Structure of Low molecular weight phosphotyrosine protein phosphatase:
Amino acid sequence: SENSLESLVSIGNICRSPIAEAVFRKLVADEKLEHKWRTDSAAVSDWNVGRSPDSRALSCLRNHGIETAHKARQITKEDFQTFDHILCMDESNLRDLNRKSNQVKDCKAKIELLGTYDPQKQLIIEDPYYGNEKDFETVYEQCLRCCKAFLEKYH
């Protein structure tokens, strides 16, 4: 469509998805495509609604020159009806999203794993919450590869 829309989703919306959202926003800005994309991220659960991303996610992004002011929110029925793409991080996200989308009339979003776009074929982006800085860096690298490939495909 002329106005492609995208949503990035993961379970708590404080680690992986804010990184993916911020990375994608920067890629879109670098390519001067802001007029074509609306980018957001949301959680499947309501655990962290209103919270800022994990401080390790923020410092990882900052190390790569990226800022974000994202506050966690939960995915809504409208998200399934307005976004063209809902990209998630792992199989349990995928199951939850497919289950939720089945309860939505006229769901137009294509729901898939962000990792399906990874040229290095790392399908799952593991939650770094219980890990360390290195794990957040791994998530960043995966998100960057996947978002680049995704943008190339739909650009």
Remarks:
- Strands lie at 6-10, 39-43, 85-88, 110-113.
